[in-house]
Amino acid sequence: MMRVKLAFFSFGLLLLTAGISLIVKGNLGAAPWDALAIGESQLFHLSIGMCIFINGCLLIIVNSILLSERIDFFAALSIFLIGMLVNFWISYGFINISPSGLLEQFSFTMIGIIMLGVGISIYLQARLPSSPMDTFMVALHKRFGLNLNNARLLTEAIAVTLAVIFQGAVGVGTFLVACTLGFVIHFFYPIMEKIYDRWTFN
């Protein structure tokens, strides 16, 4: 049971952070929360991963209020891993990858969106402390009765607004992520849930 949980959690994190980094590499605009982190990193001279971590810690507090639960300090571990993995993919894993034209930029962005959505759908199955950004989506889903797609759209709208304020990497790609990521998660989540249940009970 725990082996399956850790496998889903680890693979999901690797996939989603690779997706985030591909979107950044596409240079059409980062995913909303990452666009915010990029703006903050330029303003405060910190790494993108560190800004992702700080934003996540702030959202942990917001989530505890929305869900009327105690602060989930273990969630800080998930967002720390996500931040460090994003730093790894950008600085080492994809360091030599650079799109040569608009078509490649668009391809990087769309592939990144799919990887990000599938990665989120996978690692959430483990029900281990998840990224505060994803918990924020789930908190809105539970608190206000929104489906996952609409809850994701709302979280992305909030992040885009903050990214604009902090002069982050907002562009066409940002709005592609905001408009499509919720659909990708909404589509793949039940598929991954069935796979997880099958592996767990075998």
UniProtKB/TrEMBL annotation:
TM ranges: 45-66, 73-94, 106-124, 144-166, 172-192
Protein species of origin: Bacillus seohaeanensis
InterPro entries tied to this protein: YczE/YyaS-like
Annotated keywords: Membrane, Transmembrane, Transmembrane helix
Protein name: YitT family protein
Pfam families tied to this protein: DUF6198 (PF19700)
